[in-house]
Model the fold of this input.
Amino acid sequence: MTDSAASPADATAVIRQAIPMLGHLGLEVLSMEPGRMTLRVPFAGNQNHVGTMYAGALFAIAEVPGGAIAVQLFDPTIYYPVIRSMTVDYRRPATTDVTVDAHIDAADADRIRAEADANGKADFVMNLEVTDTGGTVVMTSRGEYQLRRHRPAD
Amino acid sequence: MTDSAASPADATAVIRQAIPMLGHLGLEVLSMEPGRMTLRVPFAGNQNHVGTMYAGALFAIAEVPGGAIAVQLFDPTIYYPVIRSMTVDYRRPATTDVTVDAHIDAADADRIRAEADANGKADFVMNLEVTDTGGTVVMTSRGEYQLRRHRPAD
Done:
């Protein structure tokens, strides 16, 4: 994402191309800087059987940043992120658009890169809060990811 | 779902109408009987940045059955299910269609209904395995749901 996504609109396009389902969800990058992204998923189109936001749409906005920020921070020709596990806790029903602000700080990024270089892989965790437009936390999440080095070609 | 979904095709239509995102995912009910459903999500259209099934598609197939089976078992004019939390563990990359077989047995259903009648709500848990077409478990999940009685109208 480093080269191809200079703006939030570019990053949105790159993410939706990588994972088409995120386009159906209407996921958007609102702002970004190195190691940080703010994302939004609209309420419209993402409702469930009781008129609140579908659990899977809330999952998606919390799951994406671990991978997207890793692709932004770590050269994707050398490294790629995968998700290992995810726990989501639904706190309040969401009835508006929702946002999440996620980051990996510079010291963590250095640790992750060094460990992946030494061992071929490095685990990292993202704890996030998804909020509605009134600032209420509607879901919290804990995602466990792994950054891996591409194996050399045979 | 009891009345409106006599066949798996009917149930698929009801679920996709309740949660439009599940139509985008291509989620399908393959078979059903009282308290039990087998679901499928296709690989086609649900890929991620590394060519395996998107984590959110795997989440969705495991999240749906708790609600869908509850709607089937418990009269939706009296009760409705909500999800409280969900933990998913990604075991192997999925590169085929995936299925899940989920059930709530009769004794559990009786306990859940009685507790909701007594307290207005009842917690229940679903532990599931999502498998690929070769039978490999690609993801396990633990979902915590709650069955609630509709409050009487004011």
Residues 36 and 103 of chain B are 4 Å apart (CA to CA). The first strand of chain B starts at residue 28 and ends at 33. Chain B has four helices and six strands.
